[in-house]
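hey so i finally got around to running the thing on that chain from the lab meeting. sorry it took forever, my laptop kept dying and i had to restart like 3 times. anyway pasting the input first so we r on the same page abt which one it is
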Amino acid sequence: MATAEEVMQLLVRRIAGVMAVDPAHVAPDTRFDEDLHADSLDLVEVVEGVERDLRGRGERMRLGDAELLELRTVAQAAERIAGSSTVVDPEAR
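ok and heres what got predicted. didnt touch it at all, straight out
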């Protein structure tokens, strides 16, 4: 299963791509709303990208819509995603 630190790296890359920001400006305490001005569609796109990244590693994550909308910071997202990930294909790692 992915650790919060591994998910953080995936999130930073996805946030930089979706939000067109320098990855160096995305920190654990970066807030989706106030700092990145991300809307719900941006969050969905970021999380779906991380979900694809994890699937490529043979892992699956579960994060409901309500949980997604509660995410405030990048660190919070990393912890929730890491906490919900499970290995489904150990050969993919």
